[in-house]
Design brief:
single chain, 233 residues, alpha/beta, 8-stranded mixed sheet, 8 strands, globular
């Protein structure tokens, strides 16, 4: 049994190489677990290029709600191949993170941004085989497309899925979201919501927008994930 910390605590990375993982423990009893997949990184984590720190306000927000967060590394940062090894390393990190949390018997939600959103679908499909709770929801923010050469297994037809695309996102665009939307609907996943996040005022819905912390960015990205987690509880 792990003691509850006085404040949200980010610990890690635990494990080796790309299969390592960071864990965020809330300061209150865990109500749900969110596996949070970061976007593609072009350099290893450092003080000037923090991977967890880039999303720390969002992760702290989740922890304040009672959500523990598993943050798989899944790549070294740089010349990593975007292939099956990324799926394996992401899933290995998720398994290790869940064990670090003490395998709490609470709902699990898979969330991710860009390439991390792509990997969330593979986790949902493989969770049972990995010994993880099957994610009750997937929050795919500006998803990249399916991983070439890696078959996506079956996803429970009752899984709630939110696919978001940005109207000014010229990096991921809508191609990945469109591919996953078509695939899920063809397989009978019943609750798939497709949302275009629109620019307004000073808020620009480009590829970097989900990293923002303004009130508009929080409403666009944090609130929908909060709702998915609440529905999963």
């Amino acid at each position: 049994m792990h003691a509850v910390p006085a404040h949200p605590v980010v610990s890690g990375p635990f494990g080796r190489g790309a299969a390592a993982v960071w864990v965020v423990r809330p300061a209150v009893p865990v109500r749900a677990v969110v596996v949070f997949g970061h976007g593609w990184k072009v350099a290893p984590p450092s003080a000037s290029y923090p991977w967890v720190g880039q999303f720390r306000p969002w992760l702290d927000h989740l922890a304040a709600r009672g959500d523990a967060v598993i943050f798989p590394r899944y790549q070294l940062g740089g010349a990593d191949a975007q292939d099956a090894s990324r799926v394996r390393d992401y899933e290995a990190g998720a398994v290790a993170g869940y064990a670090r949390l003490g395998r709490p018997r609470v709902p699990l939600v898979a969330a991710g941004y860009s390439y991390g959103a792509t990997l969330a679908f593979y986790l949902a499909a493989d969770a049972r085989r990995l010994g993880l709770p099957v994610p009750r929801a997937i929050d795919a923010v500006f998803a990249a497309g399916p991983v070439p050469g890696v078959r996506l297994g079956a996803i429970a037809t009752t899984t709630r899925v939110l696919l978001q695309v940005g109207d000014r996102d010229t990096e991921a665009g809508s191609g990945g979201a469109n591919a996953f939307s078509a695939l899920l609907r063809a397989r009978g996943v019943r609750t798939v919501r497709y949302e275009v996040v629109r620019s307004r005022g000073a808020f620009v819905a480009d590829h970097a927008a989900p990293k923002g912390t303004t009130a508009t960015a929080r409403a666009a990205f944090w609130s929908p994930l909060d709702a998915l987690v609440a529905q999963a509880e």
